[in-house]
Amino acid sequence: MTHTPTPPQADPGTPWAGSAIHEFLNHRAAAMGAGSWASPAREGTIPLTGGVPDPDALPTAALLEATRTVLAREAAPALEYGGNYGFPGLRELVAAEVDPQPGLGYGVDNVALTSGSAHALHNILDTFLNPGDTVVIETPAWGGIIRHLRGAGAVIEEVGMDEHGILIPELDELLTRLAAEGRRPKLIYTIPTFQNPMGITSTHERRKALIEVAARHRVLILEDDPYGELRFSGAPVPSILSLAGGDGVIRCGSFSKIIATGLRVGWIQASREYVDAVTRMRFDNGTSPFTSRIIAAYLEAGNHQPHLAKMRAIYKAKCDGMLSALEESCSGLATWTHPEGGFFIWLSYPASTDPKALAAAASDEGVQFIPGASFFAKGGGQHSLRLCFSYLSENVQAEAIRRLARALEKAR
Amino acid sequence: MTHTPTPPQADPGTPWAGSAIHEFLNHRAAAMGAGSWASPAREGTIPLTGGVPDPDALPTAALLEATRTVLAREAAPALEYGGNYGFPGLRELVAAEVDPQPGLGYGVDNVALTSGSAHALHNILDTFLNPGDTVVIETPAWGGIIRHLRGAGAVIEEVGMDEHGILIPELDELLTRLAAEGRRPKLIYTIPTFQNPMGITSTHERRKALIEVAARHRVLILEDDPYGELRFSGAPVPSILSLAGGDGVIRCGSFSKIIATGLRVGWIQASREYVDAVTRMRFDNGTSPFTSRIIAAYLEAGNHQPHLAKMRAIYKAKCDGMLSALEESCSGLATWTHPEGGFFIWLSYPASTDPKALAAAASDEGVQFIPGASFFAKGGGQHSLRLCFSYLSENVQAEAIRRLARALEKAR
To answer: B341: which of A45, A313, B66, B394 lies 20 to 30 Å off by Cα?
Structure first.
């Protein structure tokens, strides 16, 4: 007779009989659903879902070399606690080279390292939001920020976008209406460059107008910019932080899309009092000095610009390929955005095409995408979807778009 | 004339004139002070402060080898997102080998990886505490948990300890009194093994009694055990989680003290519904798959038990050395605990010795320690201090204790 470990049994005689967890969850946790990761694709299905870098372009050899450098040169500080602000050498590199803010004179004190920009956002919300506080998000919005805000117990208000960015008159009207109700939002959340999910970039003029309206209503702008370095066409637009002269803006960046998502290192950049305030709300003993110093060594070895150039060429080719495939097979069935960088294309289809029929047809055809409704907190987006062109090879993507075209055809 | 970047100037005409941050901080952040890291020791001063591993014992070569293995074998998944629960391979190793819970049949679903156990605690408090909720902590308590709880807006209640662990009648009385006031605490926080700062270990009987009282009052136990594997004398005591049969206990562990603090990888282990609940309150896209897979490769290569054996021998020698030095020079001036593992000794001195005079004398003599008052949330601990024996070499520690003895002599 084999002897297997006995699973824990609820003893009906103990005070813990049955599940007790709902006595303990706080209000925010009690309201949270499960995470929003896309379910794994079925065998043979092509996923156009995850916003992750091209796996063949990961700088594996350079990271191994950087690890060797760090463990040979500075093993002890890399393997010990590094403080809540993070490794100063990398904070300096962020301010000086990776994410410089022209005219602001920023340095090490304006940057705090975080465990990715998703963690940066959590740290910021944990610092500024009381449950019930209002936050304005651009819509459609990255699904992650909707989950973040629900987890923080925030009240979400939405403002629409066109291909040039947030609709400023709509924002002004919203903030005026909220003020009349006695509600001043704490934050306006935006991804101004190669937006997730739309792929669009807010213009210089739209950014200036956003800064003016936000300042007039005394609302902070939360500028989330994980994709900005991945521009493969068009001219760069200054960050909202730099255009605002450093006032009223907190900026988040990340090494996830420019090196690797698995490192979990990002940053917050802002005027010093904001950096100090969010860091006081860190209770995790800081972001890993090991990974932070590996990234610093990778940058110091001159890998950054050549790798960016390589990534831009890869994503340009992939984006061009997907746009050509769309042109070829989806004209007349849908319209889509034309990004100048980043990972995403936003596709809109006519009201006459049924979203449920499209989902079923896409499943039959073997193609997966994120439905537009996932990017709306309060409903909407039924006749749209997000396509990601960063991950798969060009041939596979072209096949996926042909399948999508057949699905759109069936569902109309 | 040199031209330096102009720092951002508040324009008195803009809506952001002057500092605006206090309009935006939430209630919790507005109440937070700066972090509690010890100030750097002056030149020539010997610090007995930081609870960090022996720097010469860091397994640098084994970690480089593990990194090479990971980047050769599994670069793509190590450098991509790994989900909110963390790398399953390492979760399995934690449940099966690193932190097994006899009799509970735990596996991968009972473990979530966190960015160190400090982050685990933040994740747990973020899941269970509403502002104003009560938490009971053992006293003296690790200073970090006091900061965590203040950051969460918790009301702290304290329960005393002797050399066998938490004083159970005092706890029962406290919980009864709180119940009479309509306040049921959510959590009781304890480091039962090689406690920080006292260095003591709760006995088997005391753990059973703690479980009984907590269950009777329906309060969860938060078992924080970063030092448990570093036992160098005496017999191991089962975890509170395993003694409780998995009911009503959430356990935190960490690779910080058994491999390296700079990796920032720890875990939460509990019944599945608790693991699921805390993971739903993760918004950081998970702990780094890169560092998690490096640790898994390090464990798989057979480094764990030999490294633990080496660490135990080092810490035993250091602890014995510090206890001998105390015996030699501090007898009659103070009393102290006799740990069976971990990093810390707790020293108590008579009420006739003035704490301020001691601080001044210690500064003159060139020795630094953490004053006992740092480990109390509501005052107390004036005539005590924490000594850490993990970091410095034996000779340097012996000199530090001689300096401490002279300071105690001066201040009495």
So the answer is: B66
